[in-house]
Amino acid sequence: MIRTIAIEREYGSGAGGIAEKIAAQLGWTLWDRELAEEIARRLKCNPQSVMEREEKVDPTFYRLMKTFMRGSYEDSFQGGGKRMELLDAEHLSGLFEKLAKDLADKGNCVIVGRAAPYFLRERADVLRVFLYAPEEEKLRRITAQGRSKSEAQALLDRVDAERAAFVKKYYNKVWPQRNVYHLMVNTNEGDDAVIETLLHKMEQLNAKALAHA
């Protein structure tokens, strides 16, 4: 039986709002920004620091600085090197993987992004979904949140490219990895249509599980 929905998404596809609606409809817990907040709580740092580093390859300067800090006795003594190590992309990915698996074990949740569908790809109780949209629709959704068109275009050009580079570097996979997902849905059809499609697929998987029980 499906106990978790894991959603990967193109930036601007409206996945956050769709995930929030479907979680409310099911009475399940939403984990989107809350994922970064939980990681920050565990690391005792600012959630913004986590969000700035997640789902992207570390900048060259950051990687070089981290290398130097690893070898610094003074910084290690003060604890700064350890904190920087924990906040690099590779370590954050490991933390998100552990958290995603912990949440799926508890069930009744909707998880957005952070490679959760990939981390949970072998679980039969997880519905794995990729949400995308035409560029015009993504621009419409982003500007509706108060961004200028130039800001929205810059974000579209950057964010998904960073996600793809991150997946390529740390997992040697193409993003999105299509065989991971049960569904890839165009959100241009509207939030209600997307939610109906996801719930229908969930019902199909549950019926299949019961038939084989």
Q: What would your notes on this structure say?
A:
With 213 residues, the protein is α/β, with parallel strands linked by helices. The protein has a single domain (4-211), classed as P-loop containing nucleotide triphosphate hydrolases (Rossmann fold). The chain contains 11 helices and 5 strands. It has helices at residues 15-26, 33-43, 47-53, 60-70, 73-78, 80-86, 89-106, 116-119, 135-144, 149-171, 191-211; strands spanning 4-9, 29-31, 109-112, 126-132, 183-186. It has a 5-stranded parallel β-sheet, with helices on both faces. It is globular, with a radius of gyration of 18 Å. The termini are close together. The model is unreliable at 60-85 (pLDDT under 50).
